[in-house]
Design brief:
Strand order of the largest sheet: 1-2-3
Largest sheet: 3 strands, antiparallel
Strand content: 5-15%
Structural class: mainly alpha
Number of strands: 7
Length: 248
Amino acid sequence: MDEPFWNATIEELKRGFSDTEGGFQCVICGRYFEEGLIFKSGEQLMTAVKAVAHHFSNEHGTIEHHLLNLGKKQSGLSDVQRDVLGLLMGGADDEEIAEKLGFSSVSTVRQYRFKFREKAKQAKVFLTLMEKFEEKEGKTTIHKGAKMVDERWVTNEKEEAKFLDTYIDQTTGRIKQFPRKEKRKIVILKYLTGKFTPGQTYTEKEVSAELKNYYDDFATLRRYLIEYGFMQRNSDGSSYWVDATVGK
């Protein structure tokens, strides 16, 4: 489990695969299923989204199994916490868990239930504090749909202004040269996202026409906007839209 796993959103982890450019990717092994193709398993024919779900179930079992087997450094769970949570998720009752793990009383299991809920609350508080901390440092806020999130996303207002001045013609608004470095690329993609109305649905032709106003290779821009999560599209590619949280 590497980039496909750590770059996935919570919802993508829960289902076992992530939306990628033109298809779907298993979060465990990284296997890619291209959208628009038909996949065969035995005598059954499946679309890409059904095929990746079928693959995950057959090859990897459940996402709970993989999450529970992460080390303490990745999950923050001690061995005992992992065992208790695993049994709870497996449907075991408190008495059964206490007996299997050798607890002196059932109340110990109840205490773990309480600790898990407290841990979830603490995680929410910590994530909020970190976002506020980054805002204080002048770093950009990462929108909810962002993919491949790491230090490449972190820029301050001064850097953004510098990159926009470097790559955008201030008279025409067109891109003078599309950057190769990730941090600069993301700033330009954020700039392009601002050219679309959040929540409004666009056809592929409309997206291409708008992007062509800013760069001749509009197909590359469209692909990057999807790949980096600035823009969403439906399964058949007939509708594109920008979520209200993107770029904010």
